[in-house]
């Protein structure tokens, strides 16, 4: 069986606060068709792909907040995505705000990504673990980043699934800045990491770093790919969304850490690469052969709780 997978990264341009789901889904279906026309077998969309990046606004009315959440997947509004995938014979992944009721009857809200097979079945799910930002309104900020207010920390760990001829993990936006994320996936022999993001150019707590946002984006994804010998597909929601500039830089990264395809715009755009999954061996069997070279006995601090 060929271990080559043709992967498309489908960057989304801005989504307006009042843009209906149906419009966004139609844009995504259009990108999926473009990707399939270029031979893609898997199409990867960004974090919170169905709506504007709503954590930039402080809201107290739960009904208003819940408008940005999905209570079923697929729903009547998202079903066209699943139908298009079946029609085109492509798998796809995307992020959305998930509202669910657990077995105890408690309502839970997560920043979630799913992987869907070309038969329309959900193959894997991940709930974001590293939630950036803050809980309360901070009026010194030009815009808010209230992920800690609107979401719970993911409760599924960092799963890796056997799917589409390989071992696939997912993570979401801020997760990519943490080497622990990639190492958790790498330790499970991930060969492909799917990753969507919404990253503002302006970082209010350290504005001196604004000019480094694109650099830091690629730095951590390329390091994550190389240090774990895995393909990484990083997909942006980009452009000026409701007055907030978001970086682009959507790219596909080889296990050597090299970028093999990259978006050139800040709008809706598809890039495609043929990914040889066996190339993971070049790294995983050699320089980062964990069984031979890791020294976990020396890494105790990594899992200790540090109080200050
Ligand atoms: N959506 C995100 O997680 N964004 C963060 C910003 C706030 C820094 C990121 O790490 O890109």
Automatic annotation (TrEMBL):
Molecular functions per Gene Ontology: hydrolase activity
Coiled-coil residue spans: none
Keyword terms: Hydrolase
Domain annotation CN hydrolase: ranges: 5-277
InterPro entries: Aliph_Amidase/BUP (IPR050345), C-N_Hydrolase (IPR003010), C-N_Hydrolase_sf (IPR036526)
Designated name of the protein: N-carbamoyl-D-amino-acid hydrolase
Organism of derivation: Roseibium algae
